[in-house]
Amino acid sequence: MQGRNTLSRQCHPASQHGLTLVELLVVIGLIATLAGLAAPSFTDFLQRQRLQGYASEMTTNIQYARSEAVARNRNTRLSFDTDAGGTCYLLHTGAAADCTCSSNGGAQCSNPDAVVLKSVGLAAASGVTVSANVTTMLFDPVRGTASPAGSINFTDSRANTIRHIVNIMGRTRTCSPDGAVSGYKPC
Question: Which fold has domain 20-179?
Answer without folding.
Answer: minor pseudopilin epsh fold (3.55.40)
